[in-house]
Amino acid sequence: MRLAVTRGRSAITGRFAPSPTGDLHFGSLVAALGSALSARSQGGRWLVRVEDIDPPREVEGSAERIIADLARFGLVADEPVLFQSTRATAYDNAIERLLREGKAFECGCSRADLPDNGVYPGTCRNGIARGKTARAIRARVDATPVTFTDAVHGVITEQLQHDCGDFVIRRADGLPAYQLAVVVDDAFQGVTEVVRGADLLDSTARQVHLQSLLGLPHPAYMHLPLVCDADGRKLSKQDGDDPVKTLEPALAIARALQVLGQQARPDLGVEGQIAAATANWTPGTVPRKVSAQWRARADAAGAA
């Protein structure tokens, strides 16, 4: 069975794919803004996909609030929002294909069975280990290095066999794993570039590997700097000083542009800033890291 791949639309397609585990926070706003600016500055389309495939972690009403907040910040998708909860059949088809072609296998190991380094040692890759029953499904990896080029971080090479081993594509609870779902849906939506936070940089090699196993296109990648607090911790949904909640939208957008290394003009309002930033988007000035002083720099720009 062939996987559906959307073709023949805009040459450039970007996307923002939040999980509905809480409200939109500033780090997510930066990722959404960066992905939208990158796609639209090239005359492309920008999509929103809600990754609601992990019900135990989801917060009721979160998806609707995220979409509403994006609109408040001038970020409206060019097509209807796709919900991953509607895509179970596509994930099943992909997993069945990988199993049939010997590119995936059933595994009876739990997290407790893994060594201290967390790298799967291949216990069940030639059949379920004695005394165990099938729990998850893992994609096979080999010794071939996976290499991709990131627009911010440059050429990255990862040896999956050494770094993670055969990895889960269907969890023990029967739910599709993030790595599998994101690859299937990026191909389905015709995504040509993935612009997201650097916290997902470590997932990219696994996704590139799955794209190769399934014969799917490889999008371009850009991983944006993470927004951290004064102590160097990643800003999260729990941050009480989140600019999304505490600032007027135009100033929050200005702060996000500062994080992305772009010119901030809060005097232009939300729509004016996004229009100007789209016309002047400069990916080469996007930093790898944002210092703890990002708030002060953004405030200074807003007061200018």
UniProtKB/TrEMBL annotation:
Any one cellular component term from GO for this entry? cytosol
Q: Where does L-glutamate bind?
A: 15-19, 51, 178, 196
- Manner of cofactor binding, per the entry note: Binds 1 zinc ion per subunit.
Pfam families, per database record: tRNA-synt_1c
- Residues noted as binding Zn(2+) in the record, renumbered to the chain: 107, 109, 120, 124
What this protein needs as a cofactor is: Zn(2+)
Glutamyl/glutaminyl-tRNA synthetase class Ib catalytic domain residues: 12-114, 134-241
Q: Which residues bind ATP?
A: 237
- Keywords assigned by UniProt, alphabetized: Aminoacyl-tRNA synthetase, ATP-binding, Ligase, Metal-binding, Nucleotide-binding, Protein biosynthesis, Zinc
Example GO biological process = tRNA modification
- Which Gene Ontology molecular function entries are recorded, alphabetically? ATP binding; glutamate-tRNA ligase activity; zinc ion binding
Which EC numbers does the record give? 6.1.1.-
Q: Which family does it belong to?
A: Belongs to the class-I aminoacyl-tRNA synthetase family. GluQ subfamily.
- Report the function annotation for this chain: Catalyzes the tRNA-independent activation of glutamate in presence of ATP and the subsequent transfer of glutamate onto a tRNA(Asp). Glutamate is transferred on the 2-amino-5-(4,5-dihydroxy-2-cyclopenten-1-yl) moiety of the queuosine in the wobble position of the QUC anticodon.
Q: What is this protein called?
A: Glutamyl-Q tRNA(Asp) synthetase
Q: Which organism is it from?
A: Marinihelvus fidelis
